[in-house]
Every structure is written in structure tokens, then in C-alpha cells.
Amino acid sequence: MVLDPLLRQVLAAMLGIISGGGLAYVLFYGRLSGEHAGAKRIEKIAAINGRRGVDARAGGDPTQRRKQIEDTLKESEERRNRSSKNVPLHIKLEQAGLSWTKRGYFIGSGVAALVSAIATFIVAQNPLIALAVGFVFGLGIPNWLVNFLKNRRLSKFIDEFPNAIDVIVRGVKAGLPLVDCIRICAQEAQEPVKSEFRKMIETQTLGIPLAEAVEGLAARVPIPETNFFSIVVTVQQRSGGNLSEILGNLSKVLRDRKKMKAKINAMSQEAKASAAIIASLPFLVLIMVYLSAPDYIQLLWTTSQGKLLMFGSVLWMLAGILVMRKMINFDF
């Protein structure tokens, strides 16, 4: 099938824009989103709050107890820092709730890159554009998909996790051991809390201490909520304390964080809608003008000056979208 030259140029321009945006997303998203700095700040605040909360309830020798708690928190923080650096691919796939293997992931990425590059070359007849599209589909799209599924699974975990903490609190108040309370959550809770608590019970059954099993939960589910839970259980296992009261306070904190997140999302919806409209306007105007006056708009991709202007506009528009995304996304 022979495509019209003008239509082929339009498709090539659109594929080039998509490829450039995807490549920029893969290369610069981690720096612009502020996730790394936010994660470090959350870990520091969690350590400070955990230290203050335990110190306020400390009994016996305050100096010795405070030093013991500080050592426990320091060990936990160092262990989390080591586990958070250079996360292996199989851990990322597990965090996303996928049963893929590393080999299957790489094979799928290679197939996606090859198919997209061949399709782009057939349409655009340009090997450079085809190579760029294949690069984006081979590296950017699979990575984006894994991160998307991971964030969606973590969001479900955050919604269900306070309910599991409440079950543990009621069980501890009724006189059940902490392990039995966690086992009840592993049987009755909703996914993905159910599967994560089951892994924690299986790890503890093999002879690993409960504190380390809970730290494994924080490593598999890297969110502040599991970090708080790990700190509470670790400090209680090593230093003692009223576990039901501490977990009750933790449940209240988790629900307050959930309410705050919902409030932030509600307040930022207007800004997100405005950003989406502003980002889509240039493409809508391009399509409408092309349908009404194609000779007028095709100068953008038939002349060197037009191509330069369109390339600069795409880069400028991409920078504006990233800035708006940075301003809209709130972390706490």
C-alpha cells in the first residue's frame, strides 16, 4: 500500500513528537519528579517521629532506653538504604504484582522495539525516526508500564493497610500474639495486603525473626506506611512497650495521611484539568487547521524554517508540561 506523501510526512512528524516525548520522559522524569528527594525526606521524618514517639513512652532508665532505640532506628534505616539502592529487576516486577521473569521482560522489550521500529520505517521511510521509536518502545514503554502497575498496586495497598492495622490492634488487645494477628490478616485481608502479609508469615515460619520479616515487607512495598510499621514493630520487639497503643496511634496516622492525600487530589484536580487542556490545545489546533486549510499548515513540515519552528515548539511545549506536572504533583 502506497501512502500519500503528505500523509506520510504528517505521520512521521507525529511519531517523531511521540518519540521525543517518550525519550525525554525516560531520561528526565526521575530528576524532575523529585521522588528521590521526597523519599529521603520521608525517611528522615519517619525516623525522627519514631524516635520521639518511643522516647515519650520510655520507662526505666531514660538514657539507656533512648540509646537502645536510637541504635535500633539507625540499623533499620541503614538496612532500608541498602535495599533501596539499585533495586533488581525481579524486585521491581514483584512490586508491580507481575509474575514475569527477567528473561520474559527482556524478550518482550526486544519484540516491542523491533515491531515498533519496523512499523515506523514502513510508514515514515526514515531509519533515524524508526530507530528512535524502537528505542522508546524497547526501553521507555516497558519501564513505564512496570512503574504504572507498581504505583497502582501500592495505591491499593495504602487503601487497605489501615484496615489490617486495626485488625492487629483488636487482636493484640484481645490477648493474641502479634504473629497470630498478622496471620489473620494474611487470611482475611484484601489484596495486595493479603499476599504481602502471607509472604511475611512464610518468612517468619522459616525461622527469621519477626522484626526482620516486617522489614522485608517494607523493602517489598517501599512506602512510608510500611516504613512506619517496620519501625514500630522493630522498636517494640527490642525495647518493649504497649504494642496495642502504638499500633492504634499508627492506624490513626495512616488514616490521617489517607485523608490528606484525598484532599490534595481533590484540590489539585482543577490544576490537572487546566494542564491537560493547555497541553492538548496545540495538537487540536494543528488538526483543525489541517482539515480546513491544509496548504496553510503544511508549511510547518515542508519547509526547513517550519520544521525548525515545529521542533522548537515541541521542546518548549514539553518543558511546559513537565513544569506543570512538577507544580501539580504534591508529596507529603
From TrEMBL:
Q: Name one Pfam family in it.
A: T2SSF
Identify the InterPro entries for this entry: T2SS_GspF_dom (IPR018076), T2SS_GspF_sf (IPR042094)
**Annotated Gene Ontology cellular component terms:** plasma membrane
Nucleus as a keyword?
Answer: no
Which subcellular locations apply to this protein? Cell membrane
Broad class of where this protein is predominantly found: membrane
The superkingdom listed in its UniProt entry is Bacteria
Q: Which residues form the Type II secretion system protein GspF domain?
A: 165-290
Swiss-Prot/TrEMBL keywords: Cell membrane, Membrane, Transmembrane, Transmembrane helix
Q: Which residues form a coiled coil?
A: none
Q: Which Gene3D superfamilies match?
A: Type II secretion system (T2SS), domain F
Q: Where is the composition biased (Basic and acidic residues)?
A: 63-81
Its record classes its membrane topology as: Multi-pass membrane protein
User: Region labeled Disordered — which residues?
Assistant: 55-84
The residues that cross the membrane are 6-28, 104-122, 128-146, 273-293, 305-324
**Record's protein name:** Pilus assembly protein
From which organism does this entry originate?
Answer: Candidatus Raskinella chloraquaticus
Query: Which lineage?
Result: Bacteria, Pseudomonadati, Pseudomonadota, Alphaproteobacteria, Hyphomicrobiales
